């Protein structure tokens, strides 16, 4: 029985020693890094220009459709039932086309954003990996993430910004 107790104490000590070694944990505010990167500012400007352009096109098409609808409504009492139905179908088709143009514009903007974000994200991730290896961090959490419950580790945001030259 005494040998069993000694063995149990030895096993507990081995596990306790393993858990007692402190792990280096850091946090990074990725949102802060994104907003301070010139590449992100340039991407935002490009996306704003694209959105303004697409919005102008859509407004022009929408105005044209509204003018046509007003014209058809004003002329409706003077037209035959068949012509009014034909015009109604034409207006419906134009409305559907406008909705498709809107969806295509949204898709274009999203694709442009995703394509522009990919190299920026890679650059940030590479910088985080380099800083983490240099400082021997075992874990780095995104401080701007809602999944982060407790933040008391070292904040590596400044080091990552320095690595990126920001």
TrEMBL record:
<dbReference type="GO" id="GO:0005829">
    <property type="term" value="C:cytosol"/>
</dbReference>
<keyword id="KW-0732">Signal</keyword>
<dbReference type="InterPro" id="IPR024930">
    <property type="entry name" value="Skp_dom_sf"/>
</dbReference>
<dbReference type="Pfam" id="PF03938">
    <property type="entry name" value="OmpH"/>
</dbReference>
<dbReference type="GO" id="GO:0051082">
    <property type="term" value="F:unfolded protein binding"/>
</dbReference>
<dbReference type="GO" id="GO:0050821">
    <property type="term" value="P:protein stabilization"/>
</dbReference>
<feature type="coiled-coil region">
    <location>
        <begin position="55"/>
        <end position="115"/>
    </location>
</feature>
<feature type="signal peptide">
    <location>
        <begin position="1"/>
        <end position="22"/>
    </location>
</feature>
<dbReference type="InterPro" id="IPR005632">
    <property type="entry name" value="Chaperone_Skp"/>
</dbReference>
<comment type="similarity">
    <text>Belongs to the Skp family.</text>
</comment>
<protein>
    <submittedName>
        <fullName>Molecular chaperone Skp</fullName>
    </submittedName>
</protein>
<keyword id="KW-0175">Coiled coil</keyword>
